């Protein structure tokens, strides 16, 4: 048993060592903890769908329960942002690399991440339509208004006015980056895709504390 | 009937008439005369022969005196039907049958005179003059025909652009412009001169005709009134006055200007006067439209006037008076009276012209002057000028500024506005347009619906508390920068911004976090420093939403909201609204947040909001002070590369300090900051290298330094060192706060020494050169003042030549600077060598001049400084020459006891050092009585000063006699029971001196002053002993006093004093004991011997 666990531990350590090279914001122990957490989460996944990572549903559950996200579309996009190789699974590597930005990313990393999330079709631009799509639930519909989408459209225009520096009616990465650098609040301009400070704290405490106890 | 004439005049004036004719009409209408409907036949009714002669002679003059101008070719010929025959023309003309052409031609070959079948056309003045010569005895006829045919000769002579419109003409200015443009050069200049000449002619003509008419024309209420006003100016008692008095019999003036009863007005009577000449009985006079005459006077019983005419009718008051009162007739000519020669209206006109000619180069100035004159005229003769008013005002540029258009219908309102808003400095200072009515404010406050459509209403209010003064003259005022801005907004930008902001607020209200953040960010793109935007946010209910957002959990929304609140809370109305909406409480709570951005934003917003008392109290009551003090707790890191987190920590501390600075304006908050442990944290931050950190920190400290506890803390926490260090930083604001903190703290001697030890005096002296920044200068001079209380510091200042600079600051400085400068000089002058320095730098005169001021704090310091200077005889000579002692003396009458005391103290050295001081003091009428009466004061300092002064005054025997008569002895005796050592000393001195006269010794004894004096010897203060011993010595020359002293056991006390090292005291005590002893001996001798 002890041998088993020591072999297991050795493997884990090896994995952690390989991952930690690619991850900026976690130290070795933390990576180890996150691998363990990943394994636990994997274990919870139903037996019949054993892939090599967390599937979309599981991941969305985590986003919803742990980080308080609600918007389905955004959660989907977050999953896509984590799932770098686009295989519909978040591998342990993707998991840790994603969390690195998600929890502790620098502003630049976060800008990149958010842009990926908001660029729904992945064409390198956030188009007017994409914005509309993302913002369409952001306003309480006024029953009195003739066109219920009027406000959303206006909001899109406002956003474009503020962020579209090259005036091509869509946001390039450069536009987005520039706007966010000017006003950090615009980082999550089209919906919350990052955890707030409280849930980060809660998550980290839980994830990293567990291991110290073990 | 007057109105009728007015109407007629109006009608006539609507035609384009020449200035000459125009002027005549004007004069006529004022005189209430009937004006014919058509002015075609001018001379028939108003121009006497003399007038025409005048015109003729003037044209002649023009030719001879101004040949150049006379040769100017008219733009259009003057044409009329002449009676001259072609044959009359001389050799200079080509004559053929019925046509005559002059040989003299214009440049283009046009003959300057052309006559064909009695129609004559003339192109220059020289030709005109020729004609007049030819016409000989028909001269006048020709001139009349010419003027009648040419309604606006000026226009023809100089071109249509000079056509005289009704009222003031602007041709002069137009011409000036042309001259400036310089393309017409010489010709324009010629024209200019010509125009001036013509106007002069016009004016002379006007005077001339006026003189004539006033002799025959009937009177109107206005003329009577003017005459009466004029006469009143020459009324009064005395040889030179021409009349004793001029009174109306009735105070009531009807709307038509008459004072006569309505049933008498139908007889043409205007008013009744009682004129008392110097040499005859009162004259009872009726003024009627027909003239003035004596009436039967008032019948006393019935208070009714006997309306019967008792004399012949005179054409006006002056003529009547000349006839009735020889004295009047004789003296009136001596007066600068000239009622006929220069009636007010013409005088003004001439003035206009004068100004114009003098200031050809300065168009703008002459505009103003002209305008001013217009106003004066308007005031003086409201009725006369009305019809011509609107056009007259047209040239004023200020009309555009005012955004008012002159329309006929509005002329009355407009004229008042112009009057109040006249663009000169005087009006700017006094006569501002009244601030908006409160209801305006309310409207702007609450009726958001009205808002966009009422930009002007809102505008007026936006200016808020500081903008009470919308006056056009504000080109120099501070408001200026944003004013044009605002006008623009109010006209164009406001609606769009307003609607956009309203829309954004709607999204704030109805959006989720994402939409809210977008709306907040977009809102920040508006110019939030602009009042329009600030108030738009408030008025569409945005403030409520922003403050509500602070209560949510969404950090991003809170940050966004605070970023906006931080900006708009610079507006005082917004501040109050935020406080009203409970924003302060929420922000205080946010200070506990772990998010640093939130913390510093909230602190900075609190700093902005807590600018008024209620807000500061709210912050304190909700535990804000403690939390803000908590923000200060960051270790200043001096290393160059800080992490972003460290930078944020510093920013948090900085904003905390900013908020505390705002809060520290309330005394209780100062206390709260101290209790929350703020002082050591502030001391820590004081070591920061960042100026933006230091300013709020030092600002807070200097604000709190009004409290003793802080002053001690600043000293003990070694903050003086840092304050001194920061004095040398190149930031005037920081320097000011540091100097100001030192100013407040340096009352304490240890602090003063510390400032010196840390070499703070030199930077202070250096800062004196920054005389442009008055706030800094006030703080610096204040610090120097307080520091120079220590004599060692004075020596340092001497070394840095600060005194010379200070003397230079005695003139042209605001009072807050002057108080400190003079205070510093007063302290420095305690050092004898400095007194000479002040004199050499010419400081005595400005100091003495300041004695005439009214600022009490300044007076206290000035008197002290003058007093200190007066200890030097050379200075005293100057003070005496400037009559400084009299000024000091008159300050004894000041209401403020501090000033009184200070003045009394200053008087002492003056009396001591003035040459012939006794005589000087006597020369102040009532001065001695004044100072003696000050002994009734209940202020100890005043009493001590006055006693000291009395001791000096009493050195002069004559003055001593006078003050004795004023009862100085019982008053001094009354004070004897005091326990105040300072007063005791000077009182004893005064008593000692006052004993020297008459039976004063006895009187002091009788008034019971001796027994209390004996008690003075028990005082701890040796200077009291000396003075008391001297007083007792003087008093002991009276046997009864000796007995009293003896009874009060003086001998033992005096015997101790005899052993003193102070020789004066020794001697006085011994003398007193000797006197007592001698009395005892004599007594024994009498009894037993």
UniProtKB/TrEMBL annotation, chain A:
InterPro entries with a match to the protein in the record: EF-hand-dom_pair, EF_Hand_1_Ca_BS, EF_hand_dom, Recoverin
Keyword entries, A-Z: Calcium, Metal-binding, Repeat
Domain of life (superkingdom): Eukaryota
Residue ranges of every copy of the EF-hand domain listed in the record: 70-105, 106-141
SMART domains referenced in this protein's UniProt entry, alphabetically: EFh
The keyword Repeat is annotated on this UniProt entry: yes
GO molecular function: calcium ion binding
Keyword Metal-binding among UniProt keywords: yes
A matching Pfam family: EF-hand_5
Descriptive protein name: EF-hand calcium-binding domain-containing protein 1 isoform X1
Lineage of origin: Eukaryota, Metazoa, Chordata, Craniata, Vertebrata
TrEMBL record, chain B:
Region (Disordered): 344-493
Basic residues bias: start-end ranges: 451-461
Segments passing through the bilayer: none
ARM repeats (start-end): 582-624, 801-843, 926-968, 1008-1041
Alphabetized Pfam families for the sequence: Arm
Sequence ranges of Acidic residues compositional bias: 469-483
Biased composition annotated in UniProt, kind: Polar residues: 403-418
Signal peptide: none
InterPro entries named in the record: ARM-like, ARM-type_fold, Armadillo, GSKIP_dom_sf
Gene3D superfamilies from the UniProt entry: Leucine-rich Repeat Variant (1.25.10.10)
Domain of life: Eukaryota
Biased composition (Basic and acidic residues): 368-379
Name under which the protein is recorded: Armadillo repeat-containing protein 4-like isoform X1
Biological source species: Acipenser oxyrinchus oxyrinchus
Gene: ARMC4
């Amino acid at each position: 048993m002890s041998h088993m666990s020591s072999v297991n531990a050795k493997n884990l350590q090896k994995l952690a060592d390989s991952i930690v090279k690619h991850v900026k914001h976690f130290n070795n122990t933390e990576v180890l903890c996150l691998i363990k957490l990943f394994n636990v989460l994997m274990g919870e996944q139903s037996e019949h769908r054993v892939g090599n990572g967390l599937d979309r549903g599981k991941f969305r559950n985590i986003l919803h329960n742990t980080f308080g996200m609600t918007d389905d579309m955004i959660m989907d996009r977050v999953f896509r942002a984590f799932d770098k190789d686009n295989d519909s699974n978040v591998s342990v590597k993707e998991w840790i690399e994603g969390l690195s930005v998600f929890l502790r990313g620098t502003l630049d990393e976060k800008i990149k991440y958010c842009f990926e999330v908001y660029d729904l079709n992945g064409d390198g631009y956030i188009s007017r339509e994409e914005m509309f799509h993302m913002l369409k639930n952001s306003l309480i519909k006024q029953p009195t208004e003739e066109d219920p989408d009027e406000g959303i459209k206006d909001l899109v225009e406002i956003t474009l006015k503020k962020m579209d520096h090259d005036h091509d009616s869509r946001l390039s990465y450069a536009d987005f980056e520039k706007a966010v650098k000017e006003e950090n609040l615009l980082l999550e301009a089209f919906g919350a895709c990052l955890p707030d400070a409280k849930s980060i704290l809660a998550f980290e405490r839980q994830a990293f504390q567990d291991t110290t106890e073990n | 009937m007057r109105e009728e004439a007015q109407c007629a005049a109006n009608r006539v004036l609507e035609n384009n008439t020449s200035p000459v004719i125009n002027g005549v009409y004007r004069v006529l209408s004022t005189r209430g005369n009937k004006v014919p409907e058509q002015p075609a036949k001018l001379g028939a009714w108003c121009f006497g022969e003399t007038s025409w002669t005048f015109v003729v002679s003037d044209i002649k003059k023009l030719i001879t005196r101004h040949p150049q101008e006379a040769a100017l070719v008219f733009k259009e010929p003057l044409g009329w039907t002449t009676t001259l025959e072609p044959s009359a023309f001389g050799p200079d003309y080509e004559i053929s049958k019925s046509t005559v052409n002059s040989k003299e031609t214009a440049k283009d070959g046009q003959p300057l005179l052309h006559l064909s079948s009695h129609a004559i056309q003339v192109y220059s003045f020289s030709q005109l003059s020729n004609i007049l010569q030819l016409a000989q005895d028909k001269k006048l006829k020709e001139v009349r025909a010419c003027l009648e045919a040419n309604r606006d000769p000026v226009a023809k002579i100089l071109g249509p652009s000079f056509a005289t419109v009704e009222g003031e003409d602007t041709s002069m200015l137009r011409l000036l412009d042309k001259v400036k443009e310089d393309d017409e050069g010489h010709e324009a200049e010629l024209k200019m001169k010509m125009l001036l000449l013509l106007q002069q002619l016009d004016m002379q003509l006007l005077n001339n005709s006026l003189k004539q008419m006033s002799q025959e024309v009937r009177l109107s209420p206005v003329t009577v009134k003017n005459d009466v006003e004029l006469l009143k100016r020459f009324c009064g008692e005395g040889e030179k006055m021409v009349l004793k008095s001029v009174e109306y019999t009735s105070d009531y003036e009807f709307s038509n200007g008459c004072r006569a009863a309505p049933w008498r007005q139908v007889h043409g009577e205007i008013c009744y006067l009682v004129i008392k000449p110097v040499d005859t009985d009162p004259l009872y006079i009726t003024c009627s439209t027909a003239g003035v005459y004596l009436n039967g006077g008032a019948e006393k019983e019935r208070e009714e006037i006997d309306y019967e005419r008792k004399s012949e009718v005179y054409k006006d008051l002056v003529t009547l008076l000349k006839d009735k009162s020889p004295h009047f007739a004789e003296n009136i000519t001596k007066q600068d009276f000239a009622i006929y020669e220069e009636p007010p209206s013409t005088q003004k006109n001439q003035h206009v012209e004068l100004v114009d000619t003098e200031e050809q180069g300065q168009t703008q100035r002459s505009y103003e002057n002209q305008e001013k004159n217009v106003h004066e005229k308007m005031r003086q003769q409201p009725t006369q000028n009305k019809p011509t008013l609107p056009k007259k005002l047209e040239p004023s540029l200020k009309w555009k500024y005012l955004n008012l258009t002159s329309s006929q219908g509005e002329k009355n309102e407009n004229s008042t506005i112009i009057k109040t808003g006249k663009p000169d400095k005087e009006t700017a200072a006094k006569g501002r347009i009244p601030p908006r009515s409160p209801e305006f404010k309310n409207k702007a406050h609450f009726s958001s619906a009205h808002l966009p459509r009422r930009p002007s209403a809102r505008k007026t209010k936006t200016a808020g508390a500081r903008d009470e003064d919308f006056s056009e003259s504000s080109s120099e005022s501070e408001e200026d920068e944003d004013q044009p801005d605002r006008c623009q907004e109010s006209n164009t930008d406001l609606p769009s911004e307003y609607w956009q902001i309203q829309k954004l607020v709607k999204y704030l209200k109805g959006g989720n976090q994402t939409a809210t953040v977008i709306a907040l960010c977009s809102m920040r793109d508006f110019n939030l420093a602009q009042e329009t935007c600030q108030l738009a946010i408030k008025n569409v209910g945005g403030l409520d939403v922003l403050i509500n957002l602070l209560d949510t959990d969404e950090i991003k929304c809170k940050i966004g909201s605070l970023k906006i609140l931080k900006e708009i809370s610079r507006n005082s109305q917004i501040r109050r609204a935020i406080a009203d909406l409970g924003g302060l409480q929420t922000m205080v709570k946010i200070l506990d947040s772990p998010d640093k951005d939130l913390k510093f934003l909230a602190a900075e917003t609190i700093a902005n909001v807590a600018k008024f008392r209620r807000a500061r109290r709210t912050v304190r009551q909700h535990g804000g002070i403690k939390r803000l003090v908590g923000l200060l707790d960051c270790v200043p890191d001096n290393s160059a590369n800080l992490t972003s987190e460290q930078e944020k920590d510093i920013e948090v501390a900085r904003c905390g300090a900013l908020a505390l600075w705002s809060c520290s304006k309330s005394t209780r908050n100062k206390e709260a900051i101290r209790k929350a442990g703020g002082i050591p944290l502030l001391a820590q931050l004081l070591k920061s290298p960042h100026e933006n950190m230091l300013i709020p920190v030092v600002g807070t400290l200097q604000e709190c330094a009004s409290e003793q506890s802080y002053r001690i803390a600043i000293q003990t926490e070694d903050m003086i060192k840092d304050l001194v260090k920061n004095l040398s930083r190149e930031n005037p604001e920081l320097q000011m706060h540091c100097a100001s903190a030192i100013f407040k703290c340096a009352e304490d001697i240890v602090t003063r020494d510390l400032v010196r030890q840390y070499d703070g005096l030199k930077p202070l002296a250096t800062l004196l050169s920054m005389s442009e920044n008055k706030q800094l200068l006030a703080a610096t001079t204040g610090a120097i003042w307080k520091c120079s209380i220590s004599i060692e510091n004075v020596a340092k200042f001497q070394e840095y030549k600060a005194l010379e600079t200070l003397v230079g600051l005695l003139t042209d400085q605001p009072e807050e600077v002057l108080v400190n400068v003079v205070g510093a000089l007063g302290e420095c002058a305690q050092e004898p060598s400095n007194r000479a320095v002040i004199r050499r730098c010419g400081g005595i005169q400005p100091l003495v001049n300041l004695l005439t001021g009214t600022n009490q704090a300044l007076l206290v310091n000035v008197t002290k400084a003058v007093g200190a200077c007066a200890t030097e005889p050379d200075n005293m000579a100057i003070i005496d020459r400037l009559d400084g002692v009299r000024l000091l003396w008159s300050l004894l009458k000041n209401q403020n006891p501090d000033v009184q005391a200070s003045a009394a103290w200053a008087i002492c050295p003056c009396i001591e050092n003035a040459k012939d001081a006794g005589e000087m003091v006597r020369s102040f009428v009532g001065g001695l009585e004044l100072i003696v009466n000050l002994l009734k004061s209940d202020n100890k300092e005043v009493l001590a000063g006055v006693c000291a002064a009395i001791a000096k005054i009493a050195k002069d025997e004559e003055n001593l006699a006078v003050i004795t008569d004023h009862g100085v002895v019982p008053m001094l005796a009354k004070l004897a029971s005091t326990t105040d050592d300072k007063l005791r000393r000077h009182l004893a001195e005064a008593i000692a001196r006052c004993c020297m006269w008459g039976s004063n010794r006895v009187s002091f004894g009788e008034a019971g002053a001796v027994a209390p004096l004996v008690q003075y010897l028990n005082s701890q203060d040796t200077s009291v002993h000396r003075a008391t011993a001297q007083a007792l010595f003087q008093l002991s020359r009276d046997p009864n006093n000796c007995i009293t002293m003896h009874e009060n056991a003086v001998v033992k006390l005096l015997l101790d004093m005899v052993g003193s090292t102070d020789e004066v005291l020794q001697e006085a005590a011994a003398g007193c004991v000797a006197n007592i002893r001698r009395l005892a001996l004599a007594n024994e001798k009498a009894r037993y011997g």
